[in-house]
Amino acid sequence: MTDFEGLLRALEAADADFILVGGVAAVAHGGTRLTQDLDVVYLRERDAMDRLVEGLGDLSPYLRGAPPGLPFDWSRETLERGLNFTLTTDLGDIDLLGEITGGGTYQDLLPRTVEIEVFGMRCRCLDLPTLIDVKRAAGRPKDLEAIAELEVLRDECAPSTADN
User: Fold this and answer.
1) Which residue, 29, 42, 67, 130, could crosslink 112 as a Cys pair with Cβ 3.0–4.6 Å?
2) Mean pLDDT on 109-123
3) Distance between CA 10 and CA 46 in Å, rounded?
């Protein structure tokens, strides 16, 4: 089971630049679907990747699904050579995404985020319309199933035109 609070605290302690996306973002907006991992879009700049590597370094990050014993170097150089990483750690699973379908990179997404409080920490999260857009663009069955609930949440949060 993933310790979402522990993973977020590790990222916060390292002052990592990230945006919550995926299931945890949906829950932050009021969604009820369970998720097994923490999905974040991370800033792909040298200093930011150094902080990310430092923040997760003590948690034994390893490629999720890779055979045990496969050499894996957790470093900025590894992040620079790749883009998206599905990792398992001592605290559970985390997906580090350099960019996401329908949304782009950290810089592309940043204007479409809101600051939220999770476990007493402040962090960036995709806004609800963007979360719906990227889930629709991903097109996976689990994302398409989540959209209906997210659209209801979006509509409930929208100001009523009857009040004007």
Assistant:
1) 130
2) 94
3) 19
